[in-house]
TrEMBL record:
One of its GO terms (molecular function) is methyltransferase activity. InterPro entries: CGR2/3, SAM-dependent_MTases_sf. PANTHER family: PECTIN METHYLESTERASE CGR3-RELATED (PTHR34208:SF18), S-ADENOSYL-L-METHIONINE-DEPENDENT METHYLTRANSFERASE-RELATED (PTHR34208). It comes from Rhamnella rubrinervis. This is Uncharacterized protein. The keyword Transmembrane applies. One of its GO terms (biological process) is pectin metabolic process.
Length: 259
């Protein structure tokens, strides 16, 4: 059950009614009053559909299915990334919403150092996440501005979801920043077009709806930014993924750092 299907069936349900309202309102006053009432109810439903009242259980379902976000996908991909990047996974920066979950998972790996940048507020974060922030391992930072790290501070930078919320104007600044602070590469996890994952209730937090771009859009953008794809990493990642029958549910791009 994908969110897209749910959304489109709801639209298909409400607009034909609106058409019936217009064509039949002349025939019988009672019928038209009834139809107006139905219309009002539909409008109320439509107005409330973003508020979470009609979304709550669907969210729970998608969390369980793992169809929640590309940040969740990063956690699933860690063993495959380790195979593809080997020693370059020693000093990782993850950038994206819910970064605490990725950082805690990376810190459980042997000899791994990990940091995180959380682009949005973390008021609802749990205690262990607040602890990571307190220790300075996770920082809450607006990624539209330069990152507070020196060039080549990390071996690998992994970014998930966050870029989907940036317009090209800000991507133009943020993407080079991510490449600047890494030495062995930048891995981008982006949503597939047509898979709208954003929780409508959280849109105010993200500022704008996510824009899921096609892989050809991203690749054109990387070329504009003089960011090259790392063919070795792509090949190793694909090999490790097929060995584990791992199918990412997000687009994964492997880019070289700026040198
Ligand atoms: C982003 O940068 C590229 C090249 O540096 C440029 O061609 C493009 O117009 C820029 N886009 C925006 C929206 O600023
Ligand atoms: C390409 O990826 C490999 C890991 O597969 C990494 O060791 C190497 O440093 C990367 N090359 C560049 C230029 O980033």
């Amino acid at each position: 059950m994908s969110r897209r299907q749910v959304g489109s069936s709801r639209r298909a349900g409400s607009f034909p009614f609106a058409g019936a309202l217009h064509s039949k309102s002349r025939s019988s006053p009672l019928l038209s009053i009834g139809l107006v009432l139905v219309g009002v109810i539909l409008l109320i439903c439509y107005a409330y559909r973003g508020s979470g009242i009609f979304r709550g259980d669907k969210e729970a379902v998608s969390r369980v299915e793992g169809d929640f976000s590309c940040t969740f996908e990063v956690q699933r991909a860690i063993p495959v990334l380790k195979k593809a990047y080997g020693d370059s996974m020693r000093k990782v920066l993850h950038v994206g919403p819910d970064t605490c979950s990725v950082v805690s998972k990376l810190l459980k790996e042997d000899e791994a150092e990990a940091w995180g940048v959380e682009p949005y507020d973390i008021e609802d974060a749990d205690g262990s996440c607040k602890n990571l922030v307190h220790k300075g391992i996770v920082r809450v930072d607006d990624i539209k501005f330069p990152l507070p790290y020196r060039a080549k501070s990390f071996s690998l930078v992994i970014v998930s979801d966050a870029l989907d919320y940036l317009s090209p104007k800000y991507l133009n600044r943020t993407l080079p920043e991510l490449a600047r602070v890494s030495t062995d590469g930048l891995v981008v996890f982006a949503g597939y077009p047509g898979k709208q994952r954003a929780k409508i209730a959280e849109l105010s937090k993200f500022g704008r709806p996510a824009k899921m771009r096609s892989s050809s859009w991203w690749i054109r953008f990387f070329v504009q930014m003089s960011l090259e794809e790392n063919e070795t990493a792509i090949k190793k990642f694909e090999q490790a993924a097929s060995k584990r029958s791992y199918m990412p549910s997000c687009q994964v791009f492997h880019l070289k750092s700026y040198h």
